Amino acid sequence: MGNSILIIDDDSLLADNIRLYLERAQWETHVAYSAEAGLKMLESLHPDIVLTDHMLPGKTGLDLIAAALDIDPQIKIVMMTGEGSVQIAVDAMKAGACDYLSKPISLAELKMVLDKILGQAQMEKTLSVFQRRQARGASIMTIIGDSAPAIAMKAKVQQILDAEQHIKNGDLPSILINGETGTGKELLARALHFDGVRNNQPFIEINCASLPNNLLESELFGHERGAFTDAKERRVGLVEAADGGTLFLDEIGEIDLALQAKLLKLLEDKTVRRIGGTRERKVNIRIISATNQELEKMVCEGRFRRDLYFRLRVITLSTPPLRSTGQDILRIAEHYLQLHALHYGKKNLRFTRDAEQLLLRYSWPGNVRELRNMLEQSVLLAQGQEIGAEQLSICPGLLNESSAVTSSHNLAVSSPVHYSSKISEVEQDLLQKTLEKTDWNVSKSAKLLGLTRDMMRYRIEKYGLLATRETMGV
Predict the structure, then answer these.
(1) Which residue of 52, 124, 264, 419 pairs with 8 in a disulfide if CB–CB is 3.0 to 4.6 A?
(2) DSSP 8-state symbol, 252
(3) For the sheet containing 4-8, what is the strand order?
């Protein structure tokens, strides 16, 4: 037998007919002819579903629902009511029933209702497991780093979490996370949720750059059947799915102005309306967003709504680029080295001194994501226990300013320090010439080189180019 059901009905003929029908469909069935007998069986049997009539001797079906949920709060209950008993059906749903059926009962309809409830229960179970899996490792304590930028970031996160413990109405402020691609913005968003007061509620995430804006709107807000050509059935959006928890919007700078207006309304009113629908639904969500773009610049250019920007950045956090974390590069590299070694069944792997020097000297344009993926290849192809500089598949060609240094795809040389110094010389020369070409306009220079303004400023400071400019009398 498979799934189990307890049928409670004083009409023995109907109850036995339902029992025989469901047994042929491989259900484990039990029958009780009164509410009292049914509740006693419920305590010992723990069935998946209870199917009960409303008109029972002694307790009514509504009384039974309340008593059954006291015994097992997770039990699924279906109420059978007399034809036309709409109010009773409504009361049953309010009391905690999953569904109701009107008599005379259609056995085929009954089977459809039971299958639907089982499907929903399985989905809830799957989501619960997924939520627990999401929570593993999603803590501020698991973020590796003892450098000044890392410590400052973790300290600010802890301040936010401590303050949120004392918010009485549970209305948590929006958080905007800034940072280059690959710096762990998603990890930080997860830590804010799973270390916070909503850690038992859903954490729903979506990358706004992964879908066209028309599909993104449907994904976020849902739609009613027939709302557009392919809307063959009603769909609940991610905003409603995140009710009570956190909605994480990655790459928030990619959404268009029309969708920005809808998102602003969501933030201000805490309501959502499905595409093609007329009903406003209240939601209680916390929004965390992230971007690697300069939203302030986008606001000035009219590409991002000013009012939405200020609603999203009630609190701001920044994830530091890997190149700014000093010795943390080696700590993070060691973490991923051991993680990949475990995955590929390779023991006692370690970096050579030359490999460590190369890891520290490289500028990591792809940040932690680049480091993690590069090390996976190094571990996969490792022949011995040592990972040397020649085994690190570092790609300076990804940087526009250093692409002319080598035609090789990998930086695998016997003298990484000497090689890195050549890269630095070419990089500094290219920066200098680009700044002169733009009359020292940092934004224009960054755009020409395919860098962010922050990356450009970092390199100017790194090579002391401002001092060079003053010496030249510019």
Answers:
(1) 52
(2) G
(3) 28-32, 4-8, 49-53, 76-81, 99-102
